[in-house]
Specification:
The protein is built from six helices and eleven strands. With 251 residues, the protein is of the alpha/beta class.
Length: 251
């Protein structure tokens, strides 16, 4: 018995990927139906559709010509995503670097906070609405008080420790309540760190600190800067940066 397939064509799709320090993973796919290069923006990367005859080099040139615009749209998309990890509830515990937040319904009229043995207990009025915006804000005001205390206790010493380990010189370390960025470095080599770093895993806290320490050498994001970052992160700076994008600060 012979089976003959006539006029049967297998559609061939060429797909390849590379990693970008700003956008994350960029996936390139050749699409014979495309007439131009199209970029789909995702919170953790880009998907690029290439027409016949277009190369990866052509696509990267197109992306670089619109890098600022694409990055702005991607950041807006990230901030629009719901971040349930930072929403307080009775059946979920939020973990920080040094303590766990545990909200309990209690017969009382006000909100009570107590930090003991690595647990920040929040006693919330049982008849109140924990999911209300005002309730979430009031609870986070209390959490922020302890985050700031713990950040001041630990982060300056950790920054000086990493500076000594890798041979960086810094003038000062300050803890701030910034919600727009995890850290910054001035031309005077003074480093500012957000207290909300305490919401990150330890290895990402170190990544942010090292990022700012590298700015004491290079006050930009040039290839020289990323060479420093690769040196102090064992060539993991790109992956760590992508991982950091998954975390948001409380609003």
């Amino acid at each position: 018995m012979h089976i003959v397939f006539e006029n049967f064509k297998v559609k061939r799709v060429e797909s390849f990927m590379e990693t970008d320090p700003d956008f994350g993973n960029i996936e390139f796919v050749h699409n014979l139906r495309s007439r131009s290069i199209r970029v789909r923006i995702l919170s953790d990367g880009l998907k690029v559709s290439l027409p016949a005859g277009a190369s990866e080099k052509d696509a990267l040139a197109f992306i670089n010509s619109k890098r600022k615009s694409i990055l702005a749209k991607q950041n807006k998309l990230i901030h629009k995503k719901e971040n349930h990890d930072l929403e307080l509830s009775f059946d979920k515990k939020i973990t920080t670097l040094t303590f766990v937040v545990d909200v309990k319904p209690v017969e009382r009229k006000n909100i009570f906070f107590a930090l003991k043995d690595g647990v920040l207990t929040i006693e919330f009025p049982v008849r109140g609405d924990l999911q209300a915006e005002t309730s979430q804000k009031n609870c986070w005001n209390g959490i922020n008080y302890f985050l700031r205390k713990e950040a001041k206790r630990l982060l300056p010493d950790r920054t000086k420790q990493l500076a000594g380990k890798f041979g960086f010189y810094l003038a000062d370390v300050k803890i701030q309540s910034s919600k727009s960025r995890w850290g910054s470095c001035s031309r005077a080599r003074s480093i500012n760190l957000s207290m909300f770093l305490m919401l990150l895993p330890a290895h990402l806290i170190d990544y942010v600190i090292l990022h700012e320490l590298c700015h004491t050498k290079e006050m930009n994001h040039s290839p020289k800067f990323w060479a420093w970052m690769d040196k102090v992160t064992d060539n993991k700076s790109t992956n760590l940066r992508i991982e950091l994008k998954k975390y948001n600060m409380p609003e």
